[in-house]
Amino acid sequence: MSEPPPTLVESLKKTALHAAHVALGGKMVEFGGWHMPVAYGTGILTEHRAVRNAAGVFDISHMGQFSARGPKARAWLNSVFSNQLEKIGPGQSQYGFLLNDHGGVIDDLIIYQYGAEDFLLVVNASMIDVDLAWLEKHLPAGGGVKLENLSDDCAALALQGPRAAEIFTAFFGAKIEAPARLGVKIIDRKGVSFYVARTGYTGEDGFEFFYPAADAEAILRELLKVGEPFGLIPTGLGARDSLRLEVCYPLNGSDLSPDRTPLEAGLGFFCALDKEFIGVGSLRAQKAEGVKQRLAAIKMTEKGPPPRPHYPVWANGAPVSELCSGGLSPCLDAGIGLAYLPVDLAKAGQAVEIEIRGRRFAARVEKKPVYKKPG
Fold this sequence. Notes:
The structure is a single chain. Helices cover 22% and strands 34% of the residues. The chain is α+β, with helices and mostly antiparallel strands.
C-alpha cells in the first residue's frame, strides 16, 4: 500500500476520524475507495504485537451500519441471512453471510440484536451500496421492516487485545459491566450513546464501539488517553490484516467471493441448512455432493519474501492454485497465506510451494488457525 496522489486523495471517502489519523502520524493509503491509515509512526509490526500483548484501537468507521427494525425484522433477516438468527435474542450477536442464489458469498457480516425488534447490521465498507440495494430488493412486500443506512452518521472503533477489558472498565467506569463474548449493549457515557459489542477481527478479546460521528475525534482521543497506561496505541489497516490472517479470518473480496460458497471456505458452521434462506438450496446440494476445493491455511517452511495475494501455489511439481491472502506473520516469523486447494491437497501437513518472483519456496498446509495464543 502506498500514499495515493493528491488528485486521487480528493476523490476518496474519509471517515469522521480522518483528521485525527493525520494528526496522529498515520500513513494514509487508498483502501476500497477510502483514505485510511495503514500504520502510524510505530509501524505495522509494533502495532501487531501491541494488539497481541496489550491493546490497539482501529478506526472501523468505514464499515457499513444498517438498522433493521419492526415486527417482521427478525423473520425477514432470517430469510436473507445464512445463520440461524432465531437462536439469539436482545443483547446478542451472530456472524453469517448474505448469499446469491448459487450459494456464493455476497458479503459476510455481523447482526447485533439490541432490542426485541431492533437489529444493527455491520457490513464491509466496499459492499455498503451493494448490500443495501440487495437487502432493499428483498424487503417483505407487506411492510413490517424499516431498513435504514446509518453509515454516514456513525463512527466506529475496535478496541482489541488482552487488556481491552481493563481499558473498557477505565473508560466506561467500574459500575458498567462489559458484555460477554458476542454480547452487545447500549451504554450512555457523558451524554454520548454507544452501541457496544464484544466482537472483533483479530483473534483477541475486544470490543467494537458504534457511536455518533459528531463525537468521533473526541472519543478516540479520550480512549487513547485512558488506555495509555495499559499499553494502548492507535493501529492501522496493516496490523488489522496481519492479525486476522494469523487466525485465518476471511476477507471478503479476497478469500470470500460470489463464486465461492461458505462450505468451500470452511465456514459451513455459520450456515443453518435446516432453514430456508436465499442460496440454501445450492448449499444443501453442494454438501450432499461434497466440495471439490477448500480454503486452506499455508505456512512457509523456507525463509523468503512475504507471500502476497495471487502468488501461485504449487504441489507435486505443478501449479494448483494461487493465494487469496498472504503476508508475514509477526508472531510466527514466517510467511502465511490462504488459498483454495483441491480437497486432497487441503489437508494439514501437505507439502506445497509458493512461487515468489519466479522462485518456489517450500511451504506446508496448516490446521487453522496458524497462530494460537500460548497457553
